[in-house]
Design goal:
The complex is a heterodimer of chains A (415) and B (223). Chain A has 415 residues and is mostly beta strands. Chain A is built from 3 helices and 23 strands. In chain A, the strands form 3 sheets. Chain A has an 18-stranded antiparallel barrel. Chain A has a 3-stranded mixed beta sheet with strand order 10-14-13, with no helix packed on it. Chain A has a two-stranded antiparallel sheet with strand order 8-9. The two termini of chain A are 26 Å apart. Chain B has one domain: Clam (outer membrane lipoprotein receptor (LolB), chain A), CATH 2.50.20.10. Chain B contains 6 helices and 9 strands; from the N terminus they run H-H-H-E-E-E-E-E-E-H-E-E-E-H-H. Chain B is globular, with a radius of gyration of 17 Å. The chains are: A mainly beta (415), B alpha+beta (223). At the A-B interface, strand 16 and strand 17 of A face strand 6 of B.
Chain lengths: 415, 223
C-alpha cells in the first residue's frame, strides 16, 4: 500500500502542470514539524518526539452523475524514525446510484458521534500518537478500507459501513512515547516492543457499523450499532507474549441540541466484549457501559468553552476482581474523565489560542495541551504548543506518558 | 446605477449597550420608524425570492495594507417569507478552509442552529456560536450581516462600524446589493464583499439543507 501511495503520489505530482486542462482539482500543503522532550526520559533514546517534513497531495475529480473520485496522500521525511514514508490517507470513489442512495468505496476517514476527542460510538481507527506528539488534528483520524452505504429515505437517514480489512488505532508503542508493558508491569525499556496480533483477514471478520439518525426540530438523535473488534489492544495473550484486539459489539445512542444558550449533547454506549462476557478473564477487557455529556457555549465574542464528562462503568466487576492475578494493576469499577477546551480567536480570527485539558479523578491522571496558532497569510500558518502529561500510576492512559511531555512547532504552507 | 450609501452609525446607541438586549426587545413591539425601515430593508436584502445562490468574494483589508481573500458559495432558502430560513455555505478559499461547509437553520426569534463540516476529519460539528457579533470568517461582517439579522436586534450591533451598500442592481427583478463594505472605524480594518453569479428562485428542495449536503455537497449547492 505504501509503495502504491508513493507511486500514485508521484503520478499526481507529474499531473500538476496539466491539472487545469483535465479539470482536476489539485491541492495540498508542505509542512515542517518538530517536537522535543521537556523532561529526560530514561525509556527513550531520543530527545525529539517529532521531526518531519511532509508533502500532502489532494486530487479530486468530479465524474458523471454525481460521482467523484478523491485521493489524498502524504510523502513524509521522518527524522525521528530516520526513514522516508508514504501514507495513503484517503482514496475513494463516491457514487449515487439513486436519488436516496450514496455509496463511498475505498480508503476513507469515518467520523460520527457527539464527543470532542472522546469517542464512544465512533469505533473507527484513530492515531493517538499523532495527537500526543502535536501533529495537526487531521492526523488523529486514520482511514478505514471500507464501503459506506448511506440511505436517505426521508424520515431518517442511515449509514451502513462494512470494513473488510481491520485497521487498529495507533497507541504509544515506545517509538516516540513510552508505554506500560502489561506483561512485565512496568514502563517498557528502550527498544522493548510488544507484538500486536490483528484479527485474521477473513470474510467473517468484516466489521460492520451502523448509524440511524434524524432531526427533531433543532435536536438531533441517533442510534448506533457496531460489530467488530476493539480498536486498541484490549486483550493479552501471555502464551505468545502478544496483545490482540478482542471481539466487540457496541449498541449506543446520542442526542444533541440547543441548551441554555449553547449546545448540549449526551451519548451512551454498551460495550459488549464478546470474548469475555462473564468478565472472568482478566486478560480481556470486560463489558462496560459508557456515558458522555458535553456542553459548549460561546461565552463572549470569539471565546468558546467546551466541557465534557465521561464515565465508564465496568460490568462484571466482581468476577474481574476475583480473577485478577496477584500483583497486576487493578482497574477501578468506574472510570471518570473530565474534559475542558477553551478557544480564543484574536486579530480577525487569524490568531487562535487554545487550551485542552483532560483529568481523570479515578485514575488520577490527565494531560494539558495549550496551543497558539497564527495564520501568517492566507497560505501560511504556524502553530506552537505543548503536551504535558501527569499521573500517579504508570499503568494508566496518561500516567504511562508522564515523562513524555513535549513542546512542538509546526509550519505549513498550502498550495 | 443608483448608488445608495447608508451610514448606520450612532454613538447614542453606546449608551444603551449594557441593556441593549432588553432595550431592543422592548422596542420590538412598537411601530418605531427606524425599526420599521430596518425590518423592511432586511426583508428586501435577505428574503428576495424563494431561494437564492451567489458566489461571494470577500476581501479583508487591514490599515497596513494586508489583504486576505475569502471565496464562498452561499445558498439560501426561505422556509417562510419573513420567517425561518436555511443557509448553506461552501468555502472555496483560502486553502485552510477549502471544501468546508456550513449549514444554518435560522429563526427570527431564537438562536440559529449551526453546523460546520471539517472535511479533513469528516467531522460534522454543531456550532455553539450564539453571539450575534461573531465575525464571519474573520471579516468585519458578522454572521448576521451575511445571513440577515432580525431587524429589532440591529440597534446594539452596529457600533463603531460603517456599512455601505456600494452597488445595488436589479437581478430577476429583485434589487440586489452586489457589493457591500463594512468598515471598522476604530481599527481601520475593512471588508468588501462582492456577490457574483446571483440567481433567484432555483427551486431548491428543503431537504438539501441537511447533514447529507454538509458531508457531500450536491452540485446545485456547490457550483
Amino acid at each position: 500500500m505504501k509503495c502504491f501511495a508513493a507511486v500514485a503520489l508521484s503520478a499526481a505530482l507529474s499531473l500538476y502542470p496539466c491539472a487545469s486542462v483535465l479539470a482536476l482539482s489539485l491541492h495540498g500543503f508542505v509542512e515542517g514539524a518538530g517536537g522535543i522532550r521537556m523532561k529526560d526520559d530514561p525509556a527513550q533514546a531520543r530527545d525529539a518526539t517529532m521531526g518531519e517534513g511532509r508533502l500532502q497531495v489532494e486530487l479530486s475529480q468530479d465524474g458523471p452523475a454525481d460521482s467523484r473520485f478523491f485521493f489524498k496522500a502524504d510523502l513524509i521525511g521522518d527524522g525521528v524514525e530516520e526513514r522516508g514514508d508514504a501514507d495513503l490517507r484517503e482514496f475513494y470513489l463516491d457514487v449515487s446510484p439513486a436519488q436516496v442512495i450514496d455509496i463511498r468505496a475505498g480508503r476513507q476517514i469515518l467520523t460520527w458521534g457527539t464527543g470532542d476527542l472522546i469517542f464512544i460510538n465512533d469505533l473507527f481507527p484513530k492515531d493517538f500518537v499523532s495527537f500526543f506528539i502535536g501533529r495537526s488534528l487531521e492526523y488523529l483520524k486514520v482511514g478505514s478500507d471500507a464501503v459506506k452505504l448511506s440511505l436517505y429515505p426521508g424520515l431518517f437517514s442511515l449509514d451502513l459501513v462494512a470494513v473488510p480489512h481491520f485497521t487498529p488505532s495507533e497507541v504509544p508503542q515506545g517509538e516516540r512515547l513510552s508505554f506500560f508493558n502489561p506483561f512485565t508491569n512496568r514502563i517498557a525499556a528502550p527498544g522493548e516492543s510488544l507484538s500486536m496480533r490483528k484479527p485474521a483477514a477473513i470474510a467473517a471478520n468484516t466489521e460492520l457499523a451502523l448509524r440511524l439518525y434524524r432531526t427533531f426540530g433543532s435536536y438531533e438523535g441517533a442510534l448506533y450499532g457496531f460489530r467488530g473488534f476493539f480498536k486498541e489492544p484490549a486483550g493479552m495473550d501471555p502464551a505468545g507474549g502478544t496483545l490482540f484486539y478482542p471481539g466487540l459489539s457496541v449498541y449506543g445512542t446520542s442526542v444533541q441540541g440547543p441548551l441554555l444558550g449553547g449546545v448540549g449533547g449526551f451519548e451512551f454506549g454498551y460495550y459488549d466484549s464478546r470474548e469475555d462476557r462473564p468478565g472472568r478473564n482478566p486478560l480481556i477487557e470486560n463489558p462496560s457501559l459508557r456515558y458522555l455529556v458535553g456542553y459548549e457555549r460561546e461565552l463572549r465574542t470569539d471565546f468558546t468553552v467546551r466541557a465534557q464528562y465521561y464515565l465508564e462503568q465496568m460490568l462484571e466487576y466482581g468476577a474481574y476482581k476475583a480473577s485478577l492475578p496477584p500483583g497486576a494493576p487493578e482497574k477501578k469499577e468506574v472510570r471518570h474523565l473530565l474534559f475542558l477546551r477553551l478557544t480564543r480567536l484574536l486579530r480577525y480570527q487569524t490568531v487562535e489560542l487554545s487550551f485542552i485539558g483532560f483529568y481523570g479523578p479515578s485514575d488520577e491522571d490527565g494531560m494539558v495541551n495549550p496551543q497558539a496558532s497564527c495564520k501568517i497569510t492566507d497560505r501560511m500558518s504556524v502553530a506552537l504548543g505543548a503536551n504535558v502529561f501527569f499521573g500517579k500510576k504508570e499503568s494508566t492512559q496518561f500516567g504511562q506518558l508522564e515523562k513524555d511531555d513535549n513542546l512542538y512547532l509546526r509550519l505549513r504552507a498550502n498550495y | 446605477m443608483a448608488k445608495t450609501r447608508v451610514v448606520w452609525l450612532s454613538a447614542v446607541i453606546a449608551l444603551f449597550l449594557p441593556i441593549g438586549g432588553l432595550f431592543s426587545r422592548a422596542l420590538a413591539g412598537t411601530p418605531g420608524g427606524a425599526e420599521e425601515i430596518m425590518r423592511r430593508s432586511a426583508l428586501v436584502q435577505f428574503y428576495s425570492g424563494n431561494d437564492m445562490r451567489a458566489k461571494v468574494t470577500m476581501r479583508l483589508l487591514s490599515k497596513e495594507g494586508g489583504e486576505r481573500v475569502r471565496e464562498l458559495i452561499m445558498t439560501r432558502r426561505n422556509v417562510k417569507a419573513g420567517g425561518d430560513q436555511k443557509y448553506f455555505i461552501l468555502f472555496r478559499q483560502p486553502a485552510d478552509v477549502r471544501d468546508m461547509t456550513f449549514l444554518v437553520w435560522k429563526y427570527p426569534q431564537r438562536d440559529s442552529d449551526r453546523w460546520l463540516y471539517i472535511p479533513a476529519i469528516k467531522l460534522v460539528k454543531r456550532i455553539a456560536a450564539n453571539d450575534k457579533r461573531s465575525s464571519f470568517v474573520g471579516s468585519d461582517f458578522s454572521y448576521e450581516d451575511v445571513s440577515g439579522r432580525a431587524a429589532e436586534e440591529d440597534n446594539h450591533t452596529l457600533l463603531r462600524e460603517v456599512f455601505t451598500a456600494d452597488e445595488v442592481k436589479p437581478i430577476q427583478g429583485f434589487p440586489t446589493t452586489v457589493k457591500r463594505t463594512m468598515k471598522n472605524v476604530q481599527t481601520g480594518h475593512w471588508s468588501e464583499a462582492a456577490y457574483g453569479e446571483v440567481e433567484y428562485n432555483l427551486g431548491l428542495a428543503d431537504g438539501v439543507f441537511s447533514e447529507r449536503s454538509l458531508r457531500n455537497p450536491p452540485k446545485e449547492l456547490a457550483r
